[in-house]
Amino acid sequence: MTDEHSQSNRRIDRRTVLKTGAALGTAAMLPVAARPTAAIGLTSPGFGLGDLGWQDVDIEDAIPGVMSPTGTRDGAPYYRVEMRPGTHSHHPDIPDTKVWGYKGPNDAEGQYPGKTIEAAVNRRLKVEFVNELPDQHIFDVDTRVHGTTWEDYDEEWASQYDGAFPEVRTSTHAHGLHVESASDGLPEQWSSSSANGADVITGPQFEKAVYDYTNRQSPATLWYHDHALGTTRLNVYAGLAGFYLLRGPEEERLGLPSGDREVPMLFQDRAFNGPDEDEPTGSYKYPEEFEAEVSGDVSVVNGLAWPRFQVEPRQYRFRLLNGSNGRFFGLAFDNEGGTVPTMYQIGTDLGFLRDAVAVGPDQSKESLLLAPAERADVVVDFSEHAGETLTVTNDAGFPFESPSESTDGSDLPELAQFEVGTGTPQDPVVDPTSLRLPEPEQFSEQATVTTRQMGLVSPENDPSGIDTHLLNEGGLDTEPEHWGDDVVTEPQLGTTEIWELHNQTPDAHPIHLHLVDFQVVGRGPDGTDAPDPTERGNKDTVKVYAGETVRIISRFGNFAGRYVWHCHILEHEDQEMMRPYEVVTRSPKE
Question: Where's the Plastocyanin-like domain (predicted)?
């Protein structure tokens, strides 16, 4: 290895000290309520709602376009999707922003959000994601973060390369899709840029360039986003995210609003550099050095800052996605003292709920809480609100601990508006309260072969000065593991397991498992409280509140191989709150 491979020898010392401190087990952890959470709220001088006001957008123009196939391969539609730079207009009064996006065959540059990939249940797709980005990142890359230097990888693998470690790497994950390990977009399946004929370096777990998506699962609102080790937070903040909608006959049977009445909505927060700052006006603002949690003060929906959507007085279906790095959203309608429509949630991450859940005033749920990466399929009827303007509000604080503790209100209380036209109201096409939703497959607790104790922890000491969160797979009184430690968790293919997720930190964490869908069995101080009504369906991401235990059940079917589970606060994920697990065909640890 060359001298350039020695740029981060301090990483080895830092991780050694962390593991030594963590070996004290839970005795090394401060009480949950005693440790403040480091978080930074970024500001956008001149670009707040009070500065700019709402921008009017026809709802049809806000719907992300649909990605076209490039051709066919092995009898399946083939998509060549390039990650490329682009420019994006968030608001007429914000200068165009340099972004990174996904370029399809009909695009001139990278698109943010990425165009929607539409797929049908049981119909295979072939997708190739190609890194054509510049070799220098939009943001500063803090090389103290794990995964950003040669020293963070297997020495034998790293020794085959000379020169500087690639600053810009991408690995695209289809979030919620059941795929073989080689097509998962794992953190170490990254590739460096091939722009301008550059030699491509691929990560140590890279296996294939063309991914195989079999789509053998229920219809659902999925999404695709970057997942490169150590820079996921930066790549997604730069714009690398888009919808993946999986459709099936059971969905068509329901007769839900469709066409221009079906609207995917990507909720994010961003911060922009103002006219008196050092960076170009309108460019994204992100910390130069690693911060454990980062929020922006500008609401961005489908890439639009402060949107006021023009809708008709009729019923709509909204496919909601929290695509923020770390902000929770508690969504509700406000009508300045007037009545508001009820939101009916009919689906969650991986398909339909058992029953529709009403959200709104005088309902059991007043707002719809979405953690980063969670989705909600909702139906809203505007037919009784012609000529009215409804505001989408957010009651979730940042950082978020739990619904009972995050009571001081939100620093981003308004997200968007719906301005309902004055045309003739149209009757709703479905009654959400009487829909016969497809029944999710129920996982049997009696079939459980293993119950695993999984800890969510924050080591007390971090000599690098970086706030680090870790996962503990060996029991709550053992040391937590780092990303590069040996695989501990080995479910057997086809078996059912219960994971008990114990949160010993002051944060709420959205925990995501690759490959599988799961169901929430219980939550609360001891994991025995009933799941929330919005969780009574198949999920891939679950909120685990501070000091809480959440019990989930899953069957590890479909594929054997290496996968990961992690916190979906992207700053936590990048700084080692992520672990590999391996689905095996033999008995575990045989």
Answer: 170-249, 480-584
